[in-house]
Amino acid sequence: MKPNCIWTAFVTLSAVLLPCAQGSAEFDQFIAFGDSTLDTGYFRYNPTGIPAMDQAVAAAVAAGAKGGFAGNGVMNTTMLAGRFGLDADAVGNGGTNFANGGAHTVTDVLPNVATVMQIGNYLRSVDGVANPRGLYVIGTGSNDLLYVSRQSAGWVVAHPTYMLDLIATLSTEVATLQAAGARTILVPNPYTSAVYAGPGGVVPDALAGVYAQSVAFGPALWSGLTAAGVRYIPADINGVLRYVVTHPTAFGFTADSVLSTNPASPVNALLSVVAPAQMQSHLFLDGLHFTTAGQTIKADYYYSLLTAPSLVSLVAESAVQGGLARTASLQSQIKYSMPERGPRTASAWFSAGANTLRLKNAPGYARLSANPFGGTVGFDYATAGGTLLGTALSVGGQHQRFSTGGHCNQLDEAISLYVATQLGHWWGDAVATAGLLQDRIERPVPLGLFADRNRADTDGQTLAIAVRGGRDFRVGVVTTGPVVGLLLQRVHLDGFTETGTSGVTALAFGSQTRNAAIGQLGWRAAVELGNWRLSADAAWQHDWAGRYREVTASLTTITTAPFVADATPVSADWASATLGAAYRLGSRAALHATGSVAIGNPQVTSYGGNLSLRIRF
Length: 617
Description:
Elements: H1 3-17, E1 29-34, H2 42-45, H3 51-63, H4 76-83, H5 115-125, E2 134-139, H6 142-149, H7 153-158, H8 162-179, E3 184-188, H9 192-195, H10 208-227, E4 233-235, H11 237-246, H12 276-281, H13 292-337, E5 345-359, E6 368-370, E7 373-382, E8 388-402, E9 407-423, E10 426-447, E11 450-471, E12 473-475, E13 478-493, E14 496-497, E15 499-500, E16 507-509, E17 512-529, E18 532-543, E19 550-555, E20 563-566, E21 573-584, E22 589-599, E23 604-616
Parallel strand pairs: 1-2, 2-3, 3-4
Antiparallel strand pairs: 5-6, 5-7, 5-23, 6-8, 7-8, 8-9, 9-10, 10-11, 11-13, 11-15, 12-13, 13-17, 14-16, 16-19, 17-18, 18-21, 19-20, 21-22, 22-23
Helix pairs in contact: 4-13, 5-8, 8-10
């Protein structure tokens, strides 16, 4: 086959693979269902049914209130949506936040719309097809609990399953929402630990019964969702607020300003307009709803739950990139060794290198930056038939920095075996590697003014096998030809549980396995100029596996089912280019350097170089 024919085939196959570049979905819409804990302005744009109340809302808005239940402050839903570049505008203002203050879970009378009805209204508005890239938040139950607490003992005896029945109804409706296409559904529990807390965060004995019932609601709701087959993310905001009221000064509050009995405003949060300083000095705005400071704590916690699995997945993905770099370095050693070798000769070599690595992510999620470095020592032997057999030991490390704060220190140790042969113009090589990973991860979670630092150690393993082959052509002083290869890689990280400053944001993560099956199609060329050998390689790479992956996580503050979330997106196609130069230091030694770069990968920026010395015996 002539070189130009092979080149034509290479370009044609690359064109076929090019459209397959794949990224993972990102949030493009915020949708909320529930009550005043999520409401950003429903009654600003929809009537309350009471003219005097409508006038009061309009007057409050004119004075600076925003129409939600944070007065002139900012709701947690607005903050959370903003982290992903979205808005949380209320229904009636062009948004998809259906939450309305005072809503119950299953049944309501106008002007309120119950949570179950809100979900139904949304599905009807989209013709039964939910947005799979939407971020859904469901916050409900607090008004139902308040309703039950106000009933007589006789009513309670006559309705023993009232809360369980509404949980069953809600779970069925959420299952319908999921079946319609919703993928990411965040479900917090009621934050009654803060509402009922007295001085020191202690719940008075007189409120012990109603407090216990409200605390039990969250786990019961999550169990109902699990039984209905719903995949959701549980948020133990009650556990977070329990810590806040027992450690107020860590969050910028005092023992008095953290209490629901000492709010910043004497009127309902919907109508409240207070000084900016009060929005930060107090936890409660009106005894039930939070100031901007409290809303920030909620938004920070929700954001950490949504993004933590993706952040942790970056650690495994960086190990994949490290494995690709290590394999390329070993293949480079083979390439420079083969032309110089005679039969029955041995050589030892040492290489050291460093890279720049950037892993991107979906908007709003953590990105990773690192400068991996490492060294390798190797030994190989050329048999009488010209086959090269070798082994190498590699040690590397990197300090990975997350864009949202925190880092991971990763140590990578690996042993490799390689073989190469050449028959006339045809050549081939194979590299097999097994390695160990040691990771020390720090993931800080801000909760308003408080920084909760979570730490964990975990280990992992890597396995890889790479095979390549091609045919060289001689064109004057240039040796050139096509390269075809396949790299199979498996990175596994053991599961781990974080420990943190407070413990309320710590998570337990399941084990991760990232598989890669990368096909390579490229071209290489080399030229001899005296003691110099200059080379260039270019390849198109396509990953047939590992593009869609999820990470499992669990809360550590309360017992509930684990949840899953998407790992960082991975591109299917990219190109790589390598330039190299070798210089013979006499008849038995050679020094060579290589520089490489990944091209056209929307998720990865990677470039670096290696310097090595080889001595032949």
